[in-house]
Amino acid sequence: VSTWSPNAGLDSSSVGSASCPPQGCMLQLEFTYPLVPDSLTVWVTFFSPEETGLPAIHDILLLTLSGNNISLGPQYVFCDAPLTLKLDVKEEVYGVQFFTMEQHLEIDATLFASKPDNPLCRLIRQPPFTHSPHGLILQEPTLRYVD
């Protein structure tokens, strides 16, 4: 299985219902650990822009632990670039819902990036480096390292 799609009944490489009902389709994803997100990234692998003049994603809803779910509204997407939304959220989010009227939308993956200093985000190397078995503290807080 490689994608979620409302049109999944016609394609064995995706999951979902055979078609969207008149009120649209919804995909709900829940994450293992709730977190306060800094950004949301969604990879869409296919949609049919000529099917409707509307954005392919009718609404994105962040599911919060408090129940005060947050609507991000409609979103235009592209197949050659992930949709990345910078978020200004102050509470923990445990999942996300995508709403669409687009029969051919295909979503491949979704990523929440946490705000800095999330206690769940720790890197532990096993075995440790011999020159620094307890790790290194970087003295330059403005630098950012991405692997």
Automatic annotation (TrEMBL):
Pfam families: PAPPA (PF25900). It comes from the Eukaryota. Residues 1-122 form the Pappalysin-1 SD scarf domain. Coiled coil: none annotated. InterPro entries: PAPPA/PAPPA2, PAPPA_SD_C. PANTHER family: LAMGL DOMAIN-CONTAINING PROTEIN, PAPPALYSIN-1. This is Pappalysin-1 SD scarf domain-containing protein. It comes from Cirrhinus mrigala.
